[in-house]
Amino acid sequence: MSGIKKLAKQTLTYGVSNILSRSVNLLLTPLYTYFLADASEYGEVSVFFVFTAFLFVFFTLGMETAFFNFAKKQENSRASFSNAFYALLAFSLFWFPVGFYFSTDLAHMAEFPERSLVVKMLVLILFFDAMAALPFALLRQQNKAINYVKIKIASTVFNVIMNLVLIAGLFFLHKVVPLPFNPQDYFIEFIFLSNVLSSLFALLVLVPYFKPFLGPWDPAQMFKMLRYSLPLVLVGFAGMINETLDRVLLKYLLAEDIANSEVGIYNAFYKISLVVTLFIQSFRYAAEPFFFGKSEDQDAKLVYAKVMDYFVWICGFIVMLTIVFSPLLSKLIIRKEVYFEGGRGMSVVPILLLANLFLGVYYNLSIWYKITQKTMVGGWVSLFGALLTIGFNLLWIPTLGFVGSAWATLVAYFAMTILSFILGSIYYPVPYSKWKLFFNFSFLTLVTCWIHFMPPPMVWVVLTAFLYLIFFAIIERPDKNPKFARFFLRNDKN
């Protein structure tokens, strides 16, 4: 199982990057919630970032996964990278001027008619990020995790510095030396300008790493890669619907006088659940090239099953710890009491944490359609989840507000996990330890409902978290307690 140790090491490396980047980025949440006029302006920023996330999936064409698939053998890396990069460049150069030309119309469509400049900056961000996506994937495929980490952290720090300079710096400078304009009128524009500059910074730093991999263009291979990757755009769009559409629907389904404020509050508390997302994202960065590289080995399925075991236990413990420390985290991240009124914001945290756990399991399971070349089937699974997200948001937002959005996210991810597990057992059966998974999901679901509906004293939650960790140690070391562990390991062939 040396491969698993390598995966763990890579996950830890990417985890350090994500934790440091997110920790630095978390400085922006108190900055925005303090300097922006109210929660509605923060909600406006959140909606624009949602649009960016959706469009980023479109701009990257699923080419990262296609690159990993076609570059399984080291000698194919250069040709696969070149053709994927040229495809993204051509596509981005086509849409870049279109976005600029129609920026005013797009701003009106989003119901922010005064923000056409923001739309132009979003187009720039999308262009730079799309062109940087494949070079970052190359670093992952080449196992250059340290270089990846350095560039990501440098870009994040640069972004935070620009935000501090353009928002806090100009704000206080204006009080000392009056400027010809009021910086407070342009804080939203400054937020996106900072992102433009940091995205450009990352792309420029990446040039020396990917330039040697640019080779001749092979139209036949490019179209073969596109046939594989285009269904992944559907997967990505559906994923963005599940992750971000709730904030857009909140804006348009709630009363106009509270919509932006509700989006702002929900988005602020959503960030606490990102503690789990950090681990999942770190795991994905390491696991995707690892899974593809392992796919032709005889013990591949056994390794995938064991990886799932460790993933669920570790992610489950992170969920428990985050629930324990969420009151402290929320006070550190969110700087205005208006966000805490009624306690509704805190109530969604355990729901979103459990939802993200299911999302992580779904990412693990999704290897079956990527390896078997059935990306279109994977697209239909994601579309199924997206339809559930839309339907339950439409049903619950009018009565439950953003709490309904949190429950809709959980239902969608749970359903996608079950469906993907069933289809995977048909197309690419992996001997997962079913009783371990069943215990984990049942236990964490009960704890989430317990904390959400009947909040216990914190000491009980802490005790429950550590009992969960002890149980993990017993189950994963059956030689120390074989009778106790035998029931959970009856289906464990790995």
How does this model look, in words?
The chain has 494 residues and is mainly alpha-helical. It has one domain (2-455). 82% of the residues lie in helices and 0% in strands. It is built from 20 helices and no strands. It has helices at 2-26, 28-35, 39-60, 63-70, 77-101, 103-109, 116-141, 145-176, 187-210, 219-253, 256-294, 300-333, 344-347, 349-365, 367-371, 375-400, 402-427, 434-453, 458-476, 482-486. Helix 5 packs antiparallel against helix 7 (116-141). The longest helix is centred in the middle third of the chain and has 39 residues, at 256-294.
Name its key features.
20 helices; single chain; mainly alpha
Largest sheet: none
Can you count the beta strands? 0
Strand share of the residues?
under 5%
Q: How many separate helices? A: 20
Mean pLDDT: 80
Structural class: mainly alpha
Number of domains: 1
Overall, the morphology is globular
Radius of gyration equals 23 Å
**Percent helix:** over 70%
What letter string, H or E per element, gives the SSE order?
HHHHHHHHHHHHHHHHHHHH
Poorly predicted tracts of residues: none
**Terminal Cα span:** 10 Å
Helix and strand layout, with pairings?
Blueprint: H1 2-26, H2 28-35, H3 39-60, H4 63-70, H5 77-101, H6 103-109, H7 116-141, H8 145-176, H9 187-210, H10 219-253, H11 256-294, H12 300-333, H13 344-347, H14 349-365, H15 367-371, H16 375-400, H17 402-427, H18 434-453, H19 458-476, H20 482-486
Helix pairs in contact: 1-8, 1-11, 3-7, 3-10, 3-11, 4-5, 4-7, 4-10, 5-7, 5-10, 6-7, 7-9, 8-9, 10-11, 10-16, 10-17, 11-12, 11-14, 12-14, 12-18, 12-19, 14-17, 16-17
